[in-house]
Specification:
heterotrimer; A mainly alpha (about 170); B alpha/beta (about 350); C mainly alpha (about 120); B: alpha/beta; seven-stranded mixed sheet; 15 strands; C: mainly alpha; 7 helices; about 75% helix; about 0% strand; globular; SpoVA (chain C); transmembrane helix (chain C); Spore_V_AE (chain C)
Chain lengths: ~170, ~350, ~120
């Protein structure tokens, strides 16, 4: 018997003698899905993410001590150094292996942002510098920048409308 | 000859007179490493880009297959090939080197059996003297096209599969010796609403079940008529679902050995990076044209059914929130009948 | 003490990200975009700067601080130049991060090939 074309919700697909709706199949599929160990992943993310931020704090302290910067001034070069470390690890093909273990622990810090740009750039080299590297560098990181900028703009507009006048 | 709704029976039982499998380093570390004709020791396959690497695999496999078949390139009537790349560019460039009349097909990971079925049909119907079916896949080209750049740090779930790096080609002819192709069942698109491209097994399982069941119905055969039935790349999650559905449907798969190429090609305990198992066009091709053909030739297996499964999504269809339509094609292989 | 809090706060923000991956089943792109907006909103209500004072790099290293910096840029410029500052100032503070990422990634692409 030919299976019914996918159309209405609740439509049943016939597999030999079995009649299944999409929801029923989803239940079968979910039964066989290996359970994600959320706790284990969170612990790993906590440890690695915390460690990266700890390293960031050390770097920031170095800038504050030896370059005589305030905490606010030291934040930018600290981020730049972390980005450099991330690019180096990505270039050596090591970052993705760490990330498989650490999950959000490597993705959420700025290192994840740098990795998304660096990996896109490296991969697209095959298509040349302009159409490959140049055009594709922001393929993954683009949404972060777009949404960040739009959110900042909206916040600014709200400040203008309500006459809050800027920095609090 | 059409039997039933969607199955071809090949009266002349065309033979696979020569085949070849060429794989990358990770497949060479798996349990079937000794069954491949050539194992490259680097993922770049000595090439500058991933795409060129995939092409080289297919070119190499096709050249070796012709050698094993004992025919010259000029004798080849048709090359039927496909792959996972946009516009099946790998098969196109390989076809350029092969230089035989070319039929490009797209069946995603079911391409191996889709092309083999067509090659057998051509040979059986007298439309080709020698027809070669071939396909290839490469882990990095697929990651780059369908998912993320290869160095991107995303965390893959346990349901994710690992595209194999490898190519398999088989030359089919009415004349000559080799394991015989007796039937081919062409599948219908099945789509039960699975949208997760990191759980292909769940998306493809219904297609495998539908084609398998259609094959039994059209041929009048059952699982007991085969020594081995393999799915192409359902891997651990999809294979378990398929077994479950078949059991619910009253099809007794325990009367035969029911396995999956994606599970056979890697040692999931040692090679944990493959998660649920192998996938890709090359998966069913290299396991069938290597390991399975070998067992048919030395008579350890008498009859085998290979059900290659394919997920027919595009990178864009997934982004647009569409579900994943899938298909499965089955080819029945038999050992060469002995002269006595 | 700030080193300890950098570790803990940074780790906790990453745990939030991990929960978005595993429980909410969001892609990395969706998760990061959400966290950036969250950082922007937190700065808008004045909660992010105290967090940075308290946890140092634990608040300034995660991607949430990117949203914080973008808002800072916009608001600082708004105060200085009036309403046009909302647009002209956005990238002021984050310039280092974005420039560094572009430059280093480009240089990497010149010399390195992906390993797979």
């Amino acid at each position: 018997m030919p299976a019914k074309a996918k159309n209405k919700p609740g439509a049943r697909v016939k597999l030999n003698n079995l009649l299944l709706t999409e929801e029923e199949y989803q239940q079968v599929a979910d039964q066989h899905k290996p359970k994600t160990n959320v706790l284990r992943n969170c612990v790993r993310a906590f440890l690695v993410g915390g460690f990266i931020c700890f390293i960031g704090q050390c770097i920031q302290q170095l800038f504050m001590t030896f370059a005589d910067m305030s905490a606010r001034e030291a934040a930018s070069p600290t981020v730049a150094i972390l980005i450099l470390i991330s690019v180096v690890l990505t270039s050596f093909g090591v970052y993705d292996k760490i990330a498989q273990w650490a999950g959000a622990g490597t993705a959420v810090p700025v290192t994840g942002f740098a990795n998304s740009m660096c990996s896109s750039a490296i991969e697209s080299r095959a298509e040349g510098l302009v159409l490959g590297v140049g055009a594709n560098m922001f393929k993954l990181a683009g949404s972060v920048i777009v949404f960040g900028v739009v959110a900042a703009f909206i916040v600014g507009v709200i400040h203008v409308i309500f006459g809050l006048g800027g920095v609090h | 000859m059409l039997i039933g709704a969607q199955t071809w029976e090949f009266r002349s039982k065309p033979a696979i007179i020569g085949a070849a499998t060429v794989v990358g380093p990770e497949e060479g570390e798996g349990p079937l490493s000794h069954t491949f004709d050539f194992v490259y020791d680097n993922l770049e396959i000595d090439e500058k880009t991933w795409e060129r690497a995939e092409r080289k695999l297919l070119e190499h496999a096709s050249a070796l297959a012709l050698v094993h078949a004992g025919i010259n390139r000029e004798d080849l009537s048709f090359f039927i090939g496909g792959d996972l790349m946009n516009q099946i560019i790998t098969a196109t460039f390989a076809a350029r080197s092969i230089a035989a009349p070319y039929l490009g097909v797209f069946g995603a990971c079911s391409t191996s059996m889709e092309s083999l079925a067509l090659a057998a049909f051509l040979a059986d119907a007298g439309g080709a003297k020698y027809a070669m079916a071939g396909t290839a896949s490469h882990n990095c080209t697929v990651e780059k096209q369908f998912r993320y750049p290869t160095e991107y740090g995303s965390q893959k779930p346990a349901t994710a599969q690992y595209t194999i790096t490898g190519a398999g080609c088989a030359v089919v002819s009415k004349e000559g010796k080799g394991p015989r192709i007796t039937h081919a069942t062409i599948g219908r698109i099945q789509d039960l609403g699975v949208k997760d491209p990191f759980n292909m097994g769940a998306a493809m399982a219904p297609a495998a079940v539908d084609t398998l069941v259609s094959h039994f119905r059209d041929t009048g055969r059952g699982p007991e008529d085969y020594d081995l039935i393999v799915t192409g790349d359902l891997a651990s999650v999809g294979h378990a679902i398929a077994k479950d559905l078949l059991e619910k449907d009253g099809v007794l798969m325990d009367k035969t050995e029911f396995n999956d190429c994606g599970l056979m090609i890697y040692d999931r305990n040692k090679q944990t990076y493959v998660n649920a198992g192998g996938s890709g066009c090359g998966c069913s091709a290299v396991v069938t044209y290597g390991h399975i053909l070998r067992k048919l030739k030395n008579r350890e297996l008498g009859r085998v059914l290979v059900v290659a499964t394919g997920a027919l999504l595009s990178p864009l269809s997934y982004q647009q929130g569409e579900s994943i339509p899938c298909i499965a094609h089955a080819v029945a292989l038999e050992q060469e009948v002995s002269k006595e | 003490m700030i080193f300890f809090w950098a570790f803990v706060v940074g780790g906790l923000i990453c745990v939030i990200g991990q929960l978005m991956f595993d429980v909410l089943k969001l892609t990395p792109a969706h998760t990061m975009s959400t966290l950036v907006v969250a950082g922007a909103v937190m700065d808008a209500i004045g909660w992010y700067d105290p967090l940075v004072k308290f946890a140092g790099a634990g608040a300034s290293v995660p991607i949430t601080s990117f949203g914080n910096s973008l808002v800072h840029g916009a608001l600082t410029e708004l105060q200085r130049d009036g309403w046009i500052g909302v647009i002209t100032g956005i990238f002021d503070v984050t310039s280092a991060g974005i420039s560094a990422a572009i430059i280093f990634s480009f240089l990497a692409a010149l010399v390195v090939r992906p390993k797979g």
